[in-house]
């Protein structure tokens, strides 16, 4: 059986303590759920499940934020269930893959795969660091520490290791970051993000929500220069990466609707794309962020495709070293990668990023009339999901 995407939408990302920081994450996610129902015109009661990615499942994002988003929805009835998924930065990409698997297995016909993260209201590392500071233990068990003696898994260390392993200089990393901002600026000014962005009220924490709508990714540096990027303090002494060459902390939500052929016919839906391949791979948890490389290579082999067959790629810009190393190892065309910029400019709202990247990928494929699109992203613990879609124009 096939699984199809019939709608995809995202909020414009908000900067930390910025224009989305007043939103409770369950309410923000509910806006996306409702938009997917409205854009497809589907009967809300026909939704079999809501799978929602979220990394920092604490505080306002705790107690199954997926179900809470359903209960915050204006349209979805109480009969629609929801479950929250944590595969670190790939959480909502995994939500999409679980949704597709359910549809392909024939057990469900309409599934919403989405993600949300309010990094303003629930700061990164909250689930692990708060308990640790309060003497409640550490996620690295004695057996893990024995297997990796003297190591504390760190994405920052991993990003630097990749830069050195692939011979990436600070100048190359800085130049890549500038290009991310330039592409994001060009796409914004040309209105290319408009089909994928859901306008929501601009609502800053501590203030009342006004009439202004948030429609532009808040992290884009429209005046970015190479000199400015190069002058940002390094994340580590003697390192090559800085905050300017890393993804931006952001708030946001995104989602896609995944359906079966039966649902297409029943509700008269027009598919945007068919899920062509889905997989996930574990890799070195110390280097951690290198996993998209072997995952992409394995996925292409399983799918019977070559890198040249893919018309557009979305590789999450956790750090500039990740997509640059990926390009070097795969031989992909740089002009097909993150064509509207990436997380360095657009922000990385952790649990929402998987669905966010897929939304952008579908938009790019539609505009360029491309056939195949590939999405991958590095994930904490040394993992990577790969999803290949075939656009249906």
Automatic annotation (TrEMBL):
Active site, per annotation: 89 (acyl-thioester intermediate), 348 (proton acceptor), 378 (proton acceptor)
EC number from the UniProt entry: 2.3.1.16
PROSITE patterns: THIOLASE_2
Signal peptide per UniProt: none
Gene3D superfamilies for this protein: 3.40.47.10
Family per similarity comment: Belongs to the thiolase-like superfamily. Thiolase family.
Protein known as: Acetyl-CoA C-acyltransferase
Organism of provenance: Ramlibacter pinisoli
